[in-house]
Amino acid sequence: MDIKYFDNAATTKVSKEVLEEMLPYLKDEFGNPSSMYTLGRSSKRAVEEARKKVANLINCEPEEIYFTSSGSESDNTAIKGIAYENYRRGRHIITSKIEHPAVLNTCHTLEKQGFFVTYLDVNKEGFVDINQLIKSIRYDTILISIMFANNEIGTIQDIEEISKIAKMYNIIFHTDAVQACGNIPIDVKKLGIDMLSLSGHKFHAPKGIGALYVKKGIEFKKFIDGGHQEKDKRASTENVPGIVALGKASEIASKNLSHHVEYLSDLRNYYISEVENKIQGAILNGPKEKRLPGNANFSFEGIDGGALLLNLDEKGICASSGSACSTGNPNPSHVLKAIGLSDELANGALRTSFGEDNTKEDIDYLVDNLKESITRLRIINSPELQ
Q1: Of 93, 108, 270, 280, most Cβ neighbours within 10 A?
Q2: pLDDT digits (tens, 9 = 90+) for 81-94
Q3: Does 107 participate in catalysis according to the annotation?
Q4: Right CATH for 16-253 from 3.40.50.300, 3.40.640.10, 3.40.50.12780, 3.40.50.2300
Q5: pLDDT tens column, 283-329
């Protein structure tokens, strides 16, 4: 069966160029970057070259990039690192109700340790309430952490405005940009971002490699004890193949970003139009503007999202009912609940996230099978038709 993949928000395919770049470091260039001999120095040079490429993607200095194992580790390091470094100054953190679990659960852990967290509301399109943000700031607020773009409904926050507010009150600002990096332009200097998390497997590098940007001058506690790697902030022998891959993926994304945004936005808009015109009871979650170019999230009335996914899977279609990190959680999406959806509509959601391998013909196939599956499921679920 020909697989139609529409779940790039969960993970992307490693690109051919990225794979070719990393392969030598899985075979011949296997030296430990901390070793002094030639083989080790070669790996060290590769790591530093990749650091430059990642820095270029978000317009920061190479020494402001710290390599991690994932976006989740980057989020943990940023939030806990700032909390532990600044706990004598204050113990209050502000975030939102629609953050990724890597942020929310980190905040829950800190609450158990004596920190205080304010979880901001969002409107029906998923935008943070700026007025509530300002009113939530306290004398002891040390960190604001708001995601750049939501992984479920694609909402792109007004990061520059949030950053300005943080600066006004001398508060460190962190953003989880895992869904945004490599998919939309990001300039940390222009936007005034202090810390930023990213993950390679969201833009065609392999799983298991991420990075954390920390603006020069910001101090944070190390997250992993051990050796002195990553400027003594992240102990662990460097994942050289993964780091090289992330560097190459960043280089490709930087060169291709304008085309990427234009192409995926066109696919997304076509899909949204086709669904709204051909399928009754389809409700778009999130904004039509200011959303990730490849993201579309619909709730379908009278449908169970899990059953819909199984029907689509039989047709070779890969999509998602929400965040891949929440698979197995029987509760409705916390993101969809936060924007005001009922349990029924939240459970009837389908997230599609397109990539450059997708075409409009693929979307036609998706919409046709989506319509057929929804029609069948509604008949099954409707007592008067049984």
Answers
A1: 93
A2: 999 999 999 999 99
A3: no
A4: 3.40.640.10
A5: 999 999 999 999 999 999 999 999 999 999 999 999 998 644 545 56
